[in-house]
Write a structure and sequence with these properties.
Largest sheet: 13 strands, mixed
Number of helices: 3
Radius of gyration: 20 Å
Strand content: 25-35%
Mean pLDDT: 81
Structural class: mainly beta
Shape: globular
Helix content: 10-25%
CATH superfamily: Acid Proteases
């Protein structure tokens, strides 16, 4: 007796509702979708082109390699006994010294400031900070509530589909509580392959344009922004791994001399000890 079988599969377009449902159910980062412009319009194709330029910039990353921020993997113990790293955003690039936090997920920098920490202060030493200028970057995009990139998260809110996707994130508790709030934007993050200085790549990421900061964020803690390194799909390591197709892992080491390192795509060695991130809210 001869038994025959038929194998079938369904191919879904990346902008379809089916594919969006699948990515959402598997915990993938929010996928971009050109739904804000009428299909077939000039604006629709302009958005497609802008998105593809973002996407193809990151295709030169390779699995198994270590990557760092464009200015290197070094971290610094600085204000408030936190560790910081230099990051570059936008086109042309704008540079920020951001605090690193494994206890939160969202990345934000001061932007469109209504209430932000001063850009210069005696406690900063000889460093003068800058605020992110959304309109000065040719690759920046604001995220609206109608976009599926306005991720479903406890920190994001929407007043209407035509409004900007907004966020508010709280840190600490009691007398030491602080918060950052603003709108969600997308722009390029600059990375380099470990061991090289000339190979710069660009990854589109979502982050907060921090318009209002409160509490300790106005008094020396993370005056130039804060990068959440948590395990959710909106954290920078997750977005780097998703957009660049590298290992969804990172390593961070702090030295006793106040310096450390941060690398993305690091799988570690087989004989090393590991400490899991605590995902309990």
């Amino acid at each position: 007796m001869q038994i025959s079988s038929v194998w079938t599969s369904t191919i879904g377009h990346r902008f379809s509702d089916k594919v969006r449902e699948w990515t959402d159910s598997h915990g993938s980062p929010p996928a971009w979708n050109p739904e804000e412009a009428p299909r077939g319009s000039i604006e629709y194709y302009q958005e497609l082109l802008k998105h593809d330029l973002h996407r193809h910039r990151g295709r030169s990353l390779a699995a198994g390699e270590l990557y760092a921020f464009a200015r290197g993997n070094k971290t610094y113990e600085y204000l408030g006994n936190l560790h910081y790293a230099w990051v570059d955003l936008g086109s042309p690039s704008q540079t920020f010294l951001v605090a690193l936090d494994t206890g939160s997920d969202l990345f934000w920098v001061p932007c469109n400031c209504e209430q932000c920490a001063p850009t210069s202060d005696s406690s900063y030493g000889n460093i003068t900070f800058r605020n992110y200028n959304l309109s000065a970057s040719t690759t920046s995009e604001t995220i609206s509530c109608s976009s599926n990139q306005c991720f479903t998260d406890s920190s994001t809110t929407c007043s209407s589909k035509t409004a900007d996707c907004t966020y508010k994130i709280d840190y600490g508790s009691g007398n030491s509580s602080s918060s950052s709030s603003g709108i969600i934007v997308q722009d390029d993050l600059y990375l380099t392959k470990e061991g090289t200085t000339s190979k710069i790549v660009y990854i589109p990421i979502l982050f907060g344009c921090g318009e209002v900061q409160t509490g300790d964020l106005l008094n020396g803690a993370a005056p130039n922004g804060l990068m959440g390194l948590g395990s959710s799909n909106i954290s920078v390591p997750s977005m780097i791994a998703y957009n660049a197709a590298i290992t969804n892992s990172f390593s961070m080491c702090f030295g006793k001399d106040g310096y450390g390192r941060l690398n993305f795509g690091d799988e570690g060695s087989k004989d090393q000890y590991n400490t899991s991130l605590n995902s309990n809210p």
